[in-house]
Amino acid sequence: MALPLAPHNRRVLVASPEYLAREGALKSPADLAGRECILWFRNEHIHNAWSFSGAAGQQTIIVHGRYVSNDADVSRRWALAGYGIAYKSWLDVQEEIASGRLVPLLADLRGEKAPLNFICPHRSQFSPVVRQIYTILRDFFATIPPQAE
């Protein structure tokens, strides 16, 4: 059983101000192909096909990079350190964006959906204690400012 915690969460392109000062801003999604991107593993494969939707419709860009991780926090820290452009969950980077330590890129594009759900193997295991944990988490995620649309 899956209960939504952050059903509208999406991925967002981000880079550090230092990276942008050194390499310049993106003008279009196609610019990603020539940039250092921070990649991650998805189902044991490097996820290097980043999809977006916008005024031009749906598009997928194949990206490249020297930095690959299976740890979301590591890729966030690499982006903060200026190693490249990351395609992160809004939930992972919204605090850094608010503080200016990361800058959202191509804000007119909508990134891939990345909903966060509370998973319980079976309804019989959704005890009052587990229900209370879910309520606390749901209420916490409701306090996170939504991503600009």
TrEMBL record:
GO biological process, one term: DNA-templated transcription
Gene3D superfamilies hit by this protein: 3.40.190.290
SUPFAM superfamilies: Periplasmic binding protein-like II
UniProt xrefs under InterPro entries: LysR-type_TF_proteobact-type, LysR_subst-bd
Protein name listed in UniProt: Putative transcriptional regulatory protein
Pfam hit, one: LysR_substrate
Domain LysR substrate-binding: 4-141
Family: Belongs to the LysR transcriptional regulatory family.
CDD domains the UniProt entry points to: PBP2_CrgA_like
